[in-house]
Q: What sequence folds into this?
């Protein structure tokens, strides 16, 4: 499975972006789908995701600013980001979990938030 993340770019603080992650194969509600991010010099961290039960979780830093969604018919996951802060600057990666042992990563999309 290949994942293509897009939607990143340069935005001013307080602005919004919508990221998309398209899978090359069909996805369903049994797949976990997750957004991670990695800022320069930092470890990759969890942003938001759907678990095996379809429940949504967010990283603590999100604080209501991001909304994750998915459209299985389009094999796509989204991340709507609002009230962006300079500290949100990072490469955002999508992850697809297939069963208990397989996972796939996209190449990431760069989000840069200027102050």
A:
């Amino acid at each position: 499975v290949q994942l293509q993340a897009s939607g990143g770019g340069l935005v001013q603080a307080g602005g919004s972006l919508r990221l998309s992650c398209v899978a090359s194969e069909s996805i369903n509600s049994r797949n976990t789908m997750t957004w991670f991010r990695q800022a320069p010099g930092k470890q990759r961290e969890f942003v938001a995701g759907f678990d095996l039960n379809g429940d949504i979780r967010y990283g603590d830093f999100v604080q209501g600013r991001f909304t994750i969604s998915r459209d299985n018919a389009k094999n796509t996951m989204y991340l709507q980001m609002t009230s962006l802060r300079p500290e949100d600057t990072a490469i955002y990666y999508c992850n697809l979990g297939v069963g208990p042992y397989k996972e796939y990563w996209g190449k990431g999309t760069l989000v840069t938030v200027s102050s």
The chain has a mean pLDDT of 95. Residues 30 and 52 are 6 Å apart (CA to CA). The first strand starts at residue 3 and ends at 6. The chain has no helices and eleven strands.
